[in-house]
Amino acid sequence: xxxxxxxxRTTLGKFTTGECVVTAGSGTVSPLGTTINAFCSVSLExxxxxxxxxxxxxxxxxxxxxxxxxxxxxxKDQQEIAERCTVHGGxxxxxxEYTISKYGPPILKGCLxxxxxxxxxxxxxxxxxxxxxxxxxxxxxPSSVTQNPLLFFNSQYCSFGDKKPEALGIEVAA
Length: 174
What we know:
The structure is a single chain. By secondary structure, this protein is mainly beta. The protein has one domain: Pnp Oxidase, Chain A. Helix content is 11%, strand content 40%. The strands form 3 sheets. It has an 8-stranded antiparallel beta sheet with strand order 4-5-11-10-6-2-3-7. A 3-stranded antiparallel beta sheet has the order 1-12-13, with no helix packed on it. It has a two-stranded antiparallel sheet with strand order 8-9. It starts with a helix and ends in a 16-residue tail after the last strand. The relative contact order is 0.21. The mean pLDDT is 88.
């Protein structure tokens, strides 16, 4: 059976994911972010995470060149950052919307949580690279419990507060 890219994306789009921006760059490399939603924990001991990055992404070389990166878990109010960092070349970060990690990469302000990481191993995964990383530091602002996460469902951004089917891109039969 042949599975088309469109059918594959449509079907997997029914699985709701959180939206994150991976930030990288330090020294001579301009800070950039790339939006991801293939992200998960791998291990508690030692603490590890993974994310998947498309090899044809414009930000691929820059992210892969950096041994350190930050996973920024976005709020619904950060949709514009997610959209900007989805562009083909990865999104340039704007002055004032980030601070610099002690490891070098930018940390976006106002996120639900941030995870500072060091690359452990990379694995091929079809048209993506699976990046496994050691967690070096975590930040989860206690006030974030009152914020809604930025989600991705049905190929659209949404949040827990979006209860109307049409807001989630669901067609309702009359």
